[in-house]
Structure formats: C-alpha cells, structure tokens
Amino acid sequence: MKTMIQEKFKTLFGEEGMLYASAGRINLIGEHTDYNGGYVFPGAIDCGIIAAIKPNGEQKVKVFSLDYDEYVEFGLNEEDKPEQQWARYIFGVCRETAKRGGKVEGFNAVFAGDVPLGAGLSSSAALESCFAFALNDIFQNGIDKFELAKIGQSTEHNYTGVMCGIMDQFASVFGKKGALIRLNCKTLEYKYFPFDPKGYKLVLIDSCVKHELASSAYNKRRASCEKAAAEIKKNHPEVDFLSDAKRVWLDEVRDKISEEDFLRAEYVIGEVQRVLDVCDALERGDYETVGEMMYQTHFGLSRLYEVSCEELDFLNKLARKHDVTGSRVMGGGFGGCTINLVKDELCEAFIKDATEQFTARFGHAPKVYNVVISDGARRL
Ligand code: ADP
Ligand code: MG
Prior knowledge:
The longest helix has 25 residues, at 259-283. It contains eleven helices and 13 strands. The model has no long low-confidence stretch (mean pLDDT 97). By secondary structure, it is an alpha+beta fold. A six-stranded mixed beta sheet has the order 5-4-6-3-1-13, sandwiched between helices. It has a four-stranded antiparallel beta sheet with strand order 10-11-9-12. Bound molecules: adenosine-5'-diphosphate and magnesium ion. The site of magnesium ion has 2 residues, from loops.
C-alpha cells in the first residue's frame, strides 16, 4: 500500500510525501456504557489509513483517494466544503484544527485504506485521525492527543452530521500494539491493559445487515437509562449516571420503575462491572474469563437490553457450539459484527461452519475479518 501511495504521489506532484498512518478499532467489551458514564474498552487494529502528505505552499488542499480513484481540490475556508463525502472528512479535520488555533496551510496528499467501510470498525475515525495527526506533525501545532481525537469527533459532528461519541477517534489516536485502552466516559481518564492473546485470534463476523430499528431504539434505551438513574438518585444523590449506581441500589427502586427500564439498567450496571472484571483478567493473562464475560455481554445485550437481532444471536449460538472462547455483538446492535475470541486451532472450522450455516439460513454470506491489536495514529 505504501509503495502504491508514494508512486501516485510522485506521478501527481513530482516528489515524495511524508507517510502517516492510523487505524480502525474494535471494542472488546463495554457496550452502551458510554452515554451512561461507564467504561469502554477499545483498541486500534491492523487495518487503517495510510497517507502521503506534503505542504504545497498554497492555500489549497489537493488530495487523491486511491480507493475512490478520485482527485479533489478545496480551499481552507468554511465556504470551501467539498462535495465528495470522503473529502469532507479531510476538510473537516483542517477546519477543526484551525478552529483550535492550529496552523493549516495547503498540502498535497494521496491516501488509501483497508478498513472495511461501514462494518463497525470505524473507517471514518481512521481517516480523521490519520489527517489530524499528520497536520499536527507537519505544521508543528503541538495539539495534544486527546484534542486530536476531538478534532475527529467534531469533524463527524460538524461536517458529516454523525453525532458520535469520542471512543472511535480516541482508540484510533491512542491505540497501541498489544494493548487495549479502558476509557472512563465520564472523567475521560484512561488506562492501558495488556492484550496479547497468544494462541487465540480475534475474528469479526459481519452479518452485513443493519435493521431500521437502530436509531429509535437507541433513543428509547437512553431514556430508560436516564429514568432509572433519576430514580436511584432520589436515594443516592451521588448518582449522576447509571454507571455510578450499585446493583443493590437498582433493586431498591424495582417497583418504582417499569420492568423494561429495570432490565435496561440491569444490563448497564452489569456491563460496567464486566469491563472491570475483564481488565483484571487481562492482567492475569486469563483469556478464558475474558471470553466468558463477552458471552455474558451478549446475553445482556440480547435479553436485557434487547438490541440484538436474529442474525447476531445465530452467530453467537454457533460460536458457543464451536467452543469459541468469547463471542458477542459489537457496536450498538441490530446488525453489524460479532467479535469472537477463538483458539487458533478452532478458527478454521468455526469460520467455515459460520459462513455456510449463516448463508444457508439468511441467504447471504457474512464477511469475516481477522484483526490484531495494533498501533494507532503515527508517522511511518
Ligand atoms: P465506518 O463505520 O466504517 O466509520 P462511516 O460511514 O462512518 O463508516 O465512514 C465511512 C466513510 O469514510 C466512507 O464513506 C468514506 O467517505 C470515508 N472513508 C473511509 N475509508 C476510506 C478510504 N479508504 N478512502 C476514502 N474514504 C474513506
Ligand atoms: Mg464512522
């Protein structure tokens, strides 16, 4: 990929650019916890974006996307927003950097990536953090890494209309080989934990479905969580988010909230604890416990939080049947991937059977991605 990028850069601009890379991400555990002030536990993966970049001494960005085979030029002012969706991410990063007082001048760029688009691995965060990191380095703005992640997040908010949280960009900027990062979504404190599962693989199985329910269900889940937290707060004023509540505090308000709100809250409080349990297990190198927690999360998402779907439950069940160590739906639910922690020797049979059975049942093949936890944004 690097060679192709530099060759194209030379053809277009007559010299070589500086190379930067960034990554997509997975989230091992900690789902629907972000808006409840809880933990997420992501890591960067070995697929991402690579870009060759060099200032061009003009007030214009000239950029070529190898994957779209498309060249775009745009200026650096707010009214210069390009038409192409992919270019808007780069334009957004330029604007958000400038809004933070960073210097951004014209540059030439060629880039390509290998994060599957829209599969739940956050190809958009990879793109944003690659350019955010690169511009910060090239123009020596000295913006700290957390702010670089926020530049990506604000790009999504202000230039593509996606009101995402900070996790994807955070993981893409802060990711490290062999480590996952526990991020406290309330305080934004974070801590690295070792993740180097020798003898296991991380396998993502993409159901390639996205059910329509997703956004209305999301709002309803949020409302349930807020109601439960508000009720608990009456007894325990220190509770601002569900993540602040102990399980027994939820039991105290059982007959004050609806059964549905209770189940939603039960899931969230359990999930916050599971992230902590997984972190402890990783410090002992105990991947069997990690896997069991992943199954518990799946159960919770499916039965208590009710954001799974037939396709994902099917894949989860099949994982159990194949003695896969851990398996759960990853992301908001109603479609997308399952993330599986699989012993090396079981991998082939599991993937083959999952592909065949899923295809027979649902009429289309799932997509399979093997990922390794790797470095986030960096200069190559
Ligand atoms: P995801 O869940 O993968 O982040 P999004 O819809 O948020 O899905 O982002 C995908 C968009 O990001 C693409 O439509 C494209 O505009 C941009 N993008 C991601 N990867 C690339 C790439 N390799 N080349 C060009 N644009 C890309
Ligand atoms: Mg995205």
